[in-house]
Amino acid sequence: MNVKERDEAYNKYVEARIPKTKAWPSLFNSFWVGGVICMIGQGASDLLMYCFPSMSEQTASTYASIFLIFLASLLTGIGIYDKIGKFAGGGSIVPITGFSNSITSPAVEFKNEGIIFGMCVKMFTIAGPVIVVGVVASIVVGLIYLFV
Length: 148
Description:
It contains seven helices and no strands. By secondary structure, it is mainly alpha-helical. Helix 2 crosses helix 3 (57-77) and helix 3 (57-77) packs parallel to helix 5 (96-109). The relative contact order is 0.08.
């Protein structure tokens, strides 16, 4: 069996094993769960501005983001966010809560390997490249903005 035949056989095997999903229900669940997450963040921001009238909109938004990050990390730690992610798909990944989940999940999973080589190292395996690309892109865009 040559390489091409082996690859085709493997692709057929994988295709047979991939779980089938229904597109429209998945899209609907993704849309409304992502919307609810964003509504919670907006509600937290509005509530902060209502309770503290002198607070600026930017400060309230910052605190609402911190609240969403904390909530997602807490729900990840107790195993609920993974169930939300399985149900909602991309709707739970796109907001800031998905980034929080991507950092917290490996830290929880590898805590048995110790604080340094487990939690600290592994928690950036998924989020690390995103952070690096974000920093590099912001530098490039900043330099373009500076010279244009």
